[in-house]
Amino acid sequence: MLTYTLRRLAGMIPLLILVSIVVFSLAKMMPGDALSGRIDPNNSDPKYIAEMREKLGLNDPVYIQYARWVKNMLKGDFGESFIHKMPVSELLGQRILNTLFLALLSLFITYFVAFFMGMYAGKHPYTLGDHFIATFNYLAFAIPSFFAALVAIYIFAIQLGWVPASGTIDTGIGDGGTFIYFLSKLKHTILPAMVLGMLSTAAYTQFLRNDIIESSRKDYVRTARAKGTKESVIYNKHILRNSIIPLITFLGFDIGGLLGGAVITETIFTYPGIGQLFIDSVSNRDYSVMMTITMMLSVMTLLGNLIADLLYGVVDPRIRLD
């Protein structure tokens, strides 16, 4: 497995190079440049603008600008955000923990709910409970995430007042590390996490349900029943172990999308995370932030696919990673 992992990591290098070229090219093709967001061309001295362009290296050939950007990225220098007036690494450090907490909480909700609903629907197909779960899944597929977020804010934050509608922490709460701080963080995060998690549950529930039904009709299950094996053992040991493999695929993709999957939700809930920061950087042409986040999401996606492949071998020893 170690050899396979190292080979896959080495194979990511040309992909990342290709992604970096695409990201840099798209950023250069966008209207304006990094200087456009710092100064107003209509109210600035042209001589000053020319000096700043030379100082920032914007007059250099494109391939030199790309090489300089890659070199700085490899050294951990992601540039400076001209909107927030701070290094990009420091800005991401302030936001990434919020997004990770939101993503992990929504991921837990997704798999916890999908596992139990998929198991129940697969063990009791075509019953009233199965039809109820199917109805929920159809609604979750049909409802856009932004609409679900607005409805959740109206019901649980405005009408019932159970949770806040925005932010990540109550005012007056001290630094992190205390139980009160954690509860306040959880109270602000639970609603956007529920929106993210419950909408993603539908696909996972249906895949698990259908795979359990299909596996329950296979020969090895019939043989186990003929030998008098308990139904609980058949489902938990034989069927579930095979049916859970599709969820491993989703887990890999979810790990890859942990940082970028909450863009719409973070924006609606005014949740200061990576997703909202990315939207702001695109709107304000904050190129350093935008390009850094895009590369970070690409790395997370490649690592998520690798983790999914490695988990295949853990769940099912018959799958060899050569």
TrEMBL record:
Source taxonomy: Bacteria, Bacillati, Bacillota, Bacilli, Bacillales
Keyword Nucleotidyltransferase part of the UniProt annotation: no
Protein known as: Peptide ABC transporter permease
Domain (ABC transmembrane type-1) ranges: 96-308
GO biological process, one term: transmembrane transport
InterPro entries reported for this sequence: BPD_transp_1_N, MetI-like, MetI-like_sf
Subcellular localization, as worded in the UniProt entry: Cell membrane
Naturally occurring in which organism (per UniProt): Tepidibacillus decaturensis
Alphabetized Pfam families for the sequence: BPD_transp_1 (PF00528), BPD_transp_1_N (PF19300)
Primary subcellular site in the record, as a coarse category: membrane
